[in-house]
Every structure is written in structure tokens, then in C-alpha cells.
Amino acid sequence: MKAAIKEFAPQLEKTSALGYAWMILLALLVALGIYALLVQILEGHEVTGMRDNVVWGIYIVNFIFFMGISYAGALISGTLHLFRSDWRQPIVRIAEFITVISLLIGPLYIMLCVGRLDKLHYLVIFGRIQSPITWDVIAISTDIVGALLFLYMALLRDFAYLRDHPELKVPKWKKKLYRLFAAKYQDTPSQRKRLKRTVDIMAAMVIAIAIIVYSVLAWIFSVTLQPGWHSTIFGPYFVIAAVYSGTAVMIVTMWVFRKVYKLEKYITYQHFKNIGVVLLVMGALFGYFTFSEYLTKWYGSEKNDEQLISLLFDRYYFLFVLSNYVGVLLPLIVIGIPKLRTIGTITFSSVVVIVALWINRYLIVVPTLESPYLPVQDDRMAWVFYSGTWVEWALTIGGVASFCLFFTIASKFVPIVQLSTLIEPSQKEMEKVELSKQE
Amino acid sequence: MKNILLLLIGILLISFPGSAQDEEIEKVDPSFSISYQKESDGTKVLMGTAKYRKDRVWTRITDLEITFYYLLDGEESKLASTQTDENGLGMLKVHTEIPIPADEDGYMTFLARTSETELFESTEEEIMIIDLFLEMELLTEDDEKQIIARAYTINIDGEKEPMSDEDLFFYVPRMFSDLQVSEGYLEEGETYAEFPSDLIGDEDGNLEVIARLVEHDEYGTVEVRMMSNWGISQTAHLQEHPSKGELWTPVAPMWMIVTLIILLLGVWGHYFYTVVQLFLIRKEGKELEQK
């Protein structure tokens, strides 16, 4: 146990000059986002590119994107935990952090779309169960509570180990927090049994909730009659897209922490290969759903669907190709062909997937709103077509920077690899012991 | 070689800003049009629209000053000035208290002139209009709703001259635009039109009826409006035809409430169980510490 803690102590005890510079840069970017937010609050939504026709833009894209990442984190951590796969141990905490951090940032973007934030509480006071927005509020708040609870339960034993390790040279306030969060856990057999049972339950819960939450998000779009949104497969399509983008974020995060904290011993090629296979499968499914979605629309030749598709293949041609062709084919080729499959290429294709999937959400939201059923009342270009303003981009950069900053701070508070699992016998070893006992 | 390169860069740096400053901005001649509309209370509305072509796309000119005049025997009399809005539209309402003199043929001549700016040349446009009077009467006979509309001009001797051989349209204002409900053909200054009996009005069944001559070369757009109780009461209609699909039904469908309760109870029940287990873990730890 001491050896394991010793290995991860530098991560918790010290921050290099480069580390401080990184955090200051992120803080500055967050400050830029806060400044943009102030401008928006003081001057109103006029400072954004959203208008009467295109009422949603980059904010809702970011909301869907972050929620998707969160869902993938929950699915990966929950599934790895329930299946007790040994290789999960060094990466499961990264997945748990992805879930919680993106879940805290994502919903903030939906609030940026609200013109009258001072009346936000009306959603609770006057919210009706019939409204998909109410479903979303209930689902997301339930998801946040569940994800925080799961993360905490999963961290509990590590807090106890960190509390009980006097050699760890961390500030007093950190020690106090470890003591507080450890909740007097002593690793007795009954405590361990209770903890295992609750973590198992929460692992199953977060998977189920994440599926519901992301489906509800998809239904907000698909219950409307808008061209491009009114689709029965939107729920599963969103879920697949979420896992796909979240898996890519997971791989990139693994690569970053492996490099920064020198975790080559723990996060190996095998981890990248295994998660890469998940990315490959999700990529194939995403491609299949996308093709199915657009093929049926194109074949149906409904007036508004045709208008939407012609917009996608004209004004948004480059983005459409990048999102739905490059974003699908590149991971399939890179991970599918063993010779091309390296840590570097898997990470690179993940970066492409992240960009492609963000664009995919943009192409789901914006072109549909640019193809309304009712004729546009005002034919000014800014009213017909949407383009994000500096305020929206600044808040987007601020959100991404917050994600990175929270992750960095979290990794300074608890080890990025689960200590408790590293110092315990693996599942296979346990099974061997069980078998030998039976013999 | 290095010196020559530096010299070239220096020349480029010095010459570029200078040439940009020397270049004069060429002013644009805007496309400008004027139109006329007479409202129900007799107010004359003059509208000037200014736009220009930028990158082969028509773009509206905002904040451009337009001055309106009326002309008589070639002499200009200023009415007022206004500025174009974000749609490139500058509007002036001439109320009935301000008489606009007509020439011997009955034409009122209006002139609109845009001011010269740093970007745009000054331009002007003229329009000649005969003052048309439109009247409307709403009659109900044997459950049939009938609109009678009369249109006439007043000649130099002050006599009424009925207008003929023109189409007149009837509308009811709806949420997005005016709904055309009927049309009539003016003969000897009069036309009749039937009004539909299935239109929904406000809570008491009131709705506004509009008779309108649309963009006529000599008379412009002329309209007259009247309130009537010819509509179906909105409240009565909703009671007779309750909508099933709308979100503003007072109570959510039972299946939705049941599904939500099951889901929430299931999930939050497990959360509660987890929190209870956490407290038990803490309690056991506390007991161990005390021992």
C-alpha cells in the first residue's frame, strides 16, 4: 500500500511551474468566458447570433456535447465496474471524473439560452409534466445527484487510504478534507461489504439514468415536427453518438494523464486498444445510424426534408463531410487495421472524432432551424442563417477550459488511478483463491 | 541580398498605408422607392425604402434620413423628416388635420428625398396619388353575413365620383398575417361579398374585418377596418372542440404521471438506500474509533 501511495504522492503533493502556468492559462480562459457572460447579461441575447428563426446555436450544441461525454463516462465506468474487468482499474477514475465534471458544465449552457434567467425558478414553480423541458430538468438533476453519489462512493476507500498515510506531505486543509470525506471508513469486512453493494447499485443506476437522460435530451428535439428532428430513432442515435464522443474524450484524457503523470506503467497500450475497440464499434454504429437517418429523409423527398438536405450538401458541405465521413471512417481504418493501431494514432483519431461529433451536433441543431416550415418574416441574412458571435465562442472556450481546469484540480486532490484497486488482489486472483479453497 | 530584401520590405510597409489613405471611397447610389397607404381613419402613410447591392445581395440601409414633401405647381412644401429603420424603411404618417392639396386632375404629389451621407449619394422619388375614400357596411340577413363596400373619389367640385372595375379584397387579421376571406369587384362604386360563418373570433366572438384596395397605381393601398361580432366565440369553440394534443391541458396524461413516478421512485429509492448505507458505514467507523 505504501509503495502505491508513494508512487502517486508527487501528483498530490507538488505542482510544477508548468502545471501552475497551465492552470493560470485555463483560469484566464475561464475569465474570458465570464466576461462574455457579463456582456450577454448586460446587453441581452442580441450579442449572440441567435435570432427569431434560429433560436438555438452553439450553446445548445455545447450542452448536448458535454452531456454526451458525461453519459459515455458513466457508461464506461459503470460497465467496467459491473463486469469486474481487471484492466479497468487504472482508467475507471478518469471515466468517473469525466462523468461528473462534464455533467456540472453541460447544463450551464442551456441556461445561457434562457433570455430571462431571473425567471428560471418558474421552471420548477410552473413546470408541467407534459413538457419535455420539465423532463429534462428532472432527469438532469437526478443524473447529477446520482453521478456525484457514485463518484463519492467509488472514492471513499481512497480517501481512507490517503487519510491513514501520514507520510503524505499535503497541506493541513487537504488532510482535513480527506478525513471528512473518508467518513470514518476503516475497511472492516462489514464496511467493505456495504460499500461494494452500494457501489454496484450505483454503477447500475448511473448507466440506466444516463441512457434515460440522453434519450430525454433527444426527445426534446424529436417530439417537435421540425425537419431533421422528428425521428423515431433519435433517442438511440443520440445515445450512440454520446458514447462515441465520450469514448474519444476518454482516450484523449488517458493520453494526457499518461504523459503528464508518467503513468506508462499503469495505462498501457492494452488500455488504449481495448477502449479503442469500443470507439471502433461505436463509430460503426454511429455511421449506420447517420446513414439510416439521412437515407430515409432523402428517399421520402418531403419538401422540408429536401430543403434541409440540400442545405447540408451545399452551405454545410465541408462540415457534413468532416463530421459524417471523416469522423466515422478514420477511427474505423486506424483501429480496424492492426498495423496502424498505435497509442498515437488511436489518440489522433479520437481528437478527430471529438471535433467531428461537435460538428455533428451543430449540423443537427442549426440547419434544421434554418429550414423552418413557416416562411421567414425577415429576409436579412443574419436572421435567416446563424453564425456564432465572439460571445458564444468565448463562452465555449471558457467551458472547455473549465472542464480541463476541474480535471487538473481533481487530479491534484485524489490520485487519477484508483489506489484501492491497485493494492488489492485482482478478480482473477480472487477466483483462483476461491477455486483452490474448493479443491 | 539581405539589405535589398530589407529595403523591399520597407518600401512595401511604407507604400501600402499611403495608397489606402489616398484611395477615395466611392459613394453608392442607393435603390430607393416610395409607396402610399391610406389607413382606416384617413391617415396617409408615406413609406420610403432604401437598399443597395453589396456582393450581389440586396442590403437594407439603416439610419438614412428621408425628407418627405408634397408638391403643388412645382413648388416643394416640406412635411417632415424621418430615418430608416433596420428594414431600410422610413415611414411618415400624415394625419387628416394636415390637408394635402391636389392639382386640378385630383392628384396629390409626394416627394421623398434621401440625404447624402459618407457612403451614399442623395436620391429622390416621386409618387402621384388620387385620394380615394373607402366605406364598409356589415349586414346580416337570414343568418347570412354580407359585406358592402363603397369606393369613391371627390372631384374638384366636391362631388362624389364612384370608382369602378377594380378588385377589392376582404381580410381578417390572424396571428401571422391577414387572412383573405373574400373578394369583390367594384361596379359603380359598390361591391358585395359574403363573409364565412366558421371563423373564430375572440372570447366574445368579435373580429376585425378589413376591406382593402391593394397597391393601385393611382390610389395606392387604401383600407377600411370595422369590428364585428361575426366570429365564433373562442371559449365556446374550445369547449365544443377540446384539443387533445396541446401541452396546456391542466393535467398530464395518467400514463405519463405513472411512468414518471415509477422511474423517480426507483432511482431516488436507490439513492436513499446508498445514503443510508453510507451513514451505517460511518456509524460503524465511529464505534470502532470509540472502542
Topology, pairings included?
The complex is a heterodimer of chains A (439) and B (291).
Chain A: H1 2-13, H2 17-43, H3 58-82, H4 92-112, H5 122-125, H6 132-163, H7 172-182, H8 189-222, H9 234-260, H10 269-300, H11 303-312, H12 317-336, H13 343-369, H14 381-384, H15 390-413, H16 419-422, H17 427-438
Chain B: H1 2-22, E1 31-38, E2 44-54, E3 57-60, E4 65-72, E5 75-83, E6 89-94, E7 107-114, E8 124-130, E9 132-141, E10 144-154, E11 160-162, E12 166-173, E13 178-186, E14 190-195, E15 207-216, E16 220-228, H2 234-240, H3 254-290
Parallel strand pairs in B: 1-16
Antiparallel strand pairs in B: 1-2, 2-3, 2-6, 4-5, 4-7, 7-8, 9-10, 10-11, 10-14, 12-13, 12-15, 15-16
Structure description:
The complex is a heterodimer of chains A (439) and B (291). Chain A is an all-alpha fold. Chain A has one domain: Formate dehydrogenase/DMSO reductase domain (Formate dehydrogenase/DMSO reductase fold, Up-down Bundle), CATH 1.20.1630.10. Chain A has 17 helices and no strands. In chain A, helix 3 packs across helix 13 (343-369), helix 10 packs parallel to helix 13 and helix 12 (317-336) runs antiparallel to helix 13 (343-369). The two termini of chain A are 30 Å apart. The model of chain A has no long low-confidence stretch (mean pLDDT 87). In chain B, the strands form three sheets. In chain B, strands 1, 2, 3, 6, 12, 13, 15 and 16 form an eight-stranded mixed sheet that branches. Among the domains of chain B are: 31-130, Immunoglobulin-like (Sandwich), CATH 2.60.40.1940; 132-234, Immunoglobulin-like, CATH 2.60.40. Chain B has helices at residues 2-22, 234-240, 254-290, and strands at 31-38, 44-54, 57-60, 65-72, 75-83, 89-94, 107-114, 124-130, 132-141, 144-154, 160-162, 166-173, 178-186, 190-195, 207-216, 220-228. Chain B is flat. Chain A binds chain B through residues 128-131, 135, 138, 142, 145-146, 149, 153, 156, 183-186, 188, 190-191, 194-195, 197-198, 201-202, 205, 208-209, 212, 374, 377-378, 380-381, and chain B through 57, 60, 86-87, 176, 247-249, 252-253, 256-257, 260, 263-264, 267-268, 270-271, 273-275, 277-278, 280-282, 284-286, 288-289.
